[in-house]
């Protein structure tokens, strides 16, 4: 019984950490209500942690936004109502700067570029409490003409991979973005996790070697080490079809076409019996046909 209570307390704690934050709900001066610029929260895992953005989403409503409602060369809270907050839960490289922690977002829009600020005052109210001296980071980014009209101001993550991505800001016919990647310290933490996991003598070690191999192959482009790990995965009992397929991909990249095809055939042999898996069947058949170079 005591163990069950402890588990419940842990789950409640985690849910409170990851729950969406609503400044409308926390505002003691006002009351909880629908707003004209509804709050939104978007998050993306890059590396081994999340980046979260909480912001208000105003609509165009037939108005001219940039150069109209939002005057060029004037500070804007990158949203509406309460501050737009970005929370980096590990260390990241944004453009050319290393960031970690929680910031309020601001921008000065211009026709050809925006200047985006990360501001340390996360308790204020938009540009009304903005102080230039609280800016910690400044990014000058070019403006692009959007391919489609965006009625509701949108912040989102695009072009994400294991350790990289972009934050895009889009409204009306305009968009701009910030480049994100895991910092060197963040990557060292990832490498440490891999080393620690592979040092465990446990039943699932073969799968851990597969995951480590996949990371090294896709992210680090280290085919030699990836091949070593995928072979260890197989040697420690991981004979799953996807394990042999990854071995084939690595061998193909290294120019060993004969062994790559052999690995693909082994993958096909180890497909789950009794279950239809057309996506993987087609993928493996395509590899067997096209890796013969």
Spell out the blueprint of helices and strands.
Layout: H1 2-18, H2 23-26, E1 39-46, E2 49-56, E3 84-94, E4 97-109, E5 113-119, E6 135-142, E7 144-158, E8 164-182, H3 184-198, H4 205-218, H5 223-235, H6 241-253, H7 257-269, H8 278-290
Antiparallel strand pairs: 1-2, 2-3, 3-4, 3-8, 4-5, 5-6, 7-8
Helix pairs in contact: 4-5, 5-6, 6-7, 7-8
Feature tags:
2 domains; 30% strand; single chain; Serine Threonine Protein Phosphatase 5, Tetratricopeptide repeat; alpha+beta; 293 residues; elongated
Question: Explain this structure to me?
Answer:
The protein is of the alpha+beta class. The chain folds into two domains: 20-181, no CATH class; 199-290, Tetratricopeptide repeat domain (Serine Threonine Protein Phosphatase 5, Tetratricopeptide repeat), CATH 1.25.40. The protein contains eight helices and eight strands; from the N terminus they run ααββββββββαααααα. Strands 1, 2, 3, 4, 5, 6, 7 and 8 form an eight-stranded antiparallel beta sheet that branches. Residues 5-18 have low confidence and may be disordered.
């Amino acid at each position: 019984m005591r163990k069950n209570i402890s588990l419940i307390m842990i789950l409640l704690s985690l849910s409170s950490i990851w729950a969406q934050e609503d400044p409308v709900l926390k505002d003691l001066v006002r009351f909880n209500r629908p707003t004209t610029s509804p709050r939104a929260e978007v998050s993306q895992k890059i590396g081994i942690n999340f980046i979260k953005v909480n912001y208000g989403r105003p609509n165009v409503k037939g108005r001219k936004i940039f150069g109209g409602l939002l005057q060029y060369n004037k500070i804007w809270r990158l949203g509406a109502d309460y501050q737009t907050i970005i929370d980096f839960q590990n260390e990241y490289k944004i453009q050319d700067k290393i960031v970690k922690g929680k910031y309020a977002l601001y921008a000065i829009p211009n026709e050809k570029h925006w200047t985006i600020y990360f501001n340390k005052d996360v308790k204020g109210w938009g540009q009304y409490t903005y102080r230039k001296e609280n800016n910690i980071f400044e990014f000058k980014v070019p403006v692009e003409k959007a391919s489609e009209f965006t009625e509701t101001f949108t912040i989102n993550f695009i072009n994400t991979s294991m350790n990289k991505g972009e934050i895009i800001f889009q409204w009306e016919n305009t968009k701009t973005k910030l480049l994100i990647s895991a910092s060197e310290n963040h990557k060292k933490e990832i490498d440490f996790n891999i080393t620690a996991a592979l040092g465990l003598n446990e039943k699932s070690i073969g799968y851990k070697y597969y995951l480590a191999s996949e990371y090294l192959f896709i992210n680090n482009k280290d085919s030699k080490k990836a091949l070593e790990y995928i072979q260890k995965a197989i040697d420690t009992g991981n004979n799953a079809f996807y394990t042999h397929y990854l071995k084939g991909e690595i061998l193909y990249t290294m120019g060993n076409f004969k062994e790559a095809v052999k690995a693909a055939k082994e993958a096909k042999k180890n497909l789950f019996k009794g279950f239809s898996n057309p996506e993987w069947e087609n993928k493996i058949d395509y590899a067997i046909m096209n890796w013969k170079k």
